[in-house]
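Re-running the complex after MR caught last week's input typo. The corrected sequence lines follow. Everything else is unchanged.
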Amino acid sequence: MTTATAPEVTPGTTGERSSRARVAHLVQRQGALVILVFAAVAATVAFDSFGTQRNLTSIAVQASFLAVVALGMTFVIMGGGIDLSVGSVFALGGVLAAWGSQHGLLVALALPLAVCGAIGLVQGLVIARGGLPPFIVTLAGLLFARGLLLLITDEGSTTYKVPPGAAFREIAQGKLLGLNYTVWVVIVLFLLGGLVLHRTSYGSTTLAVGGQEDAAQLMGLPVMRSKVIAYVTSSLLAALGGIMIASYTSSGVTILGVGMELEVISAVVLGGTLLTGGAGTVLGTLVGVLLLQVIKNIINQVGSLNSNWQAVVSGVILLVVVTAQQWLARVERR
Amino acid sequence: MTDPTITVTEPRTATVLETAGVTKSFGGVHALRGVDFSLAEGEVHALVGENGAGKSTLIKVLTGVHRPDGGEVRYRGGRVDFAQPAAAQRAGISTIYQEVNLVPLLSVARNIYLGREPRRYGLIDVPTMERDARELVERLGVHIDVREDLGRLGLGAQQMVALARAMSVDSRVVIMDEPTSSLEAREVATLFDVSRSLRDQGVGLVFVSHRLDELWQLCDRVTVLRDGRDVHTGRMDGLTRTGLVSHMLGRDAGELARDGATEFGESHLQGREPVLSVAGIDARNTLRGVGLTVRPGEVLGLGGLLGSGRSETVKAIYGALPTQAGEVIVDGRPVHRNSVRHALRSGVALLSEDRKAEGIIPDLSVRDNIALAVLPRMSRMGIVSESRIDKLVETFMGKLRIKASSPRQLVRELSGGNQQKVLIARWLCTEPRVFLLDEPTRGIDVGAKAEVQSLIDELAEQGLAVVLISSEMDELVEGADRIVVLRDGAVEAELDGADLTSSALLAALAGDIAQADAAAQEEDR
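Corrected-run output:
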């Protein structure tokens, strides 16, 4: 009875959503992909060396370090937070892994993950339980991790080398089907990340917290736990990125990761994740990372250009994409 | 078996949620002073009261947001003490807030099942979740795509999704805190249908609304709160509007205002041409074609219950509330719609209801607070003439009898009444033609109240057109030369001359006049 007599509620947009809005929606979510494809095609046409298997593999490997870190950042940003510590944690993870590799593969993996995981745990607890702003807490984390790194390397003058022939080298230098293991790691982690985000209650809780924290709280969702997990994951993945780069370069390079957090954040935002949290895809983040890497590669192809141009171009593209997203979101809403 | 000769007049219903002598205070302010409230299974129970009566506090106690200081809450026969909202929800008490408390960026289906998603192999089973969600919203008579982001739906549809979520957890109690305040009429009808069907399934519903009509449409019983106490509980049918309003305001319909209870003097009308004339103001969901005029030297009272659109009306005149239609004319010149700047320049000033949030700057001195409004005019090429300001401030402090040790004293050190005078002085510096006063005497002590009241009188004497909003009937009846009564965002009645009495005001507030008219029209058909 009720159903039959109830006046229908016509919600504003369904059904009458214009095709224009649909296109806007698609472009807003996949804008980076459009630019990536365009840039890749243009580069293939312009430079003979771009489309070679060797160059593409190099792009994939270079991108894999950033991608792993960006995956963790995606979860943090979707949950409405930010993690500025990833660059330092990444470098610390690399140095610890290089040092640990002298004592075997297990130490080289376990040590950085344990130390960096602990940093993430502390940050997560302070943010979730103490209610402090993530910006400040992870800024402290950035300083702490960088300081720790300088302490154990004599202010950066000691570079730990991975012993020749160590199994640890295989992580980034070994290949499967012509692709370095690190690339496979990225593929597996991103598939897993997508599954976690869209198919587990942890994922929906994270999105709910980022979208409307008060509502998530009132719905009785485990808000604190989701935050803590996000920061621990972010630190662990940053450490993993560090392990990968240590294996790739066979050493613990101390100057890595400075400013990396900003590059990671731009990759995530380029990928369509809202900086305010609540929406986004992990696939988008991967696209964002690749886009930044392709830009770098193209600038390198133009031999005459100063390498600083890559930062300039990345900055411009970030601004354009974010502005376009904002504008398209408005078109979509109409 | 019961004796067949005994007729059962009412179906026996079990109490599902009740409070006994619940008290709650915040920093010495008593919000609840011992409230007994009981909700039966399968009833819609209205909870009404004016501002500060304790409705929201009671709801927060019931839903585990606040813990009571004294008394107890019983749910399904046992005493409960919910530590947090989640605990109350798990027990089966759902709340639907005025502001939808869902996640706009997630899909409808996700919002309904957040935290309780159906799973398969440990992962969320999206097809099942969406199918169940579709069935659920269709049972509510709502036709929406459950995969759509919630934020894309209209507010009414979002409210329905909140209800669907409540249903999906098998709630025994659903508390709706002003769910209709932002809904269109059509959406309200759907909400009511859904509420009735929930009631028929044995759910107990608590319904809070400022739209009195809705109470009779939907509710079975009502509890009236006033000053933190339950002053009336009974069935809705058999209760008249005037009866309900007198319970809310604590007045008998027959009781007349005691003469001289306020400091207001006689009428001081000057001139016939209105300074302010307002016509046909429409604002989404709040105002419907409001019109009024004020002549120089006149104090126009603006009456109405909470949610009737009083504050919204003055805000609209001041340009601070977006309006869709309407005309405001000051001194014969139209004021641009939705522009505070232009309203100010035309000579409109608004003393807002919430002086802490919207007016006073506690850490500035009396002088600086007063001077804020005139700084642009007191400066030449960006340089402020200190001596001119000093002079002006001194004049106003004298005129308004502001009690401060010096113009340099910080405003936060002053009493509420003197803070209010500082604000009034600030506005007077702008030399307004029309002064809109929203609850100018709320929250200040008796002595200061009298001073502010006589100040309002003086302002009118000097030829200002004053619009006065007050929840106190005495203040309105004695202070105003004429009263415009609003109800549900429209002008309900205008009282002046012999009609300017408390009882007439009470009847108009309750909307009995319109009801009588409507009934007559119905018969004509």
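None of the earlier attempt is carried over here. Chain B touches chain A through 45 residues (CB under 8 Å). The longest strand of chain B covers residues 15-26.
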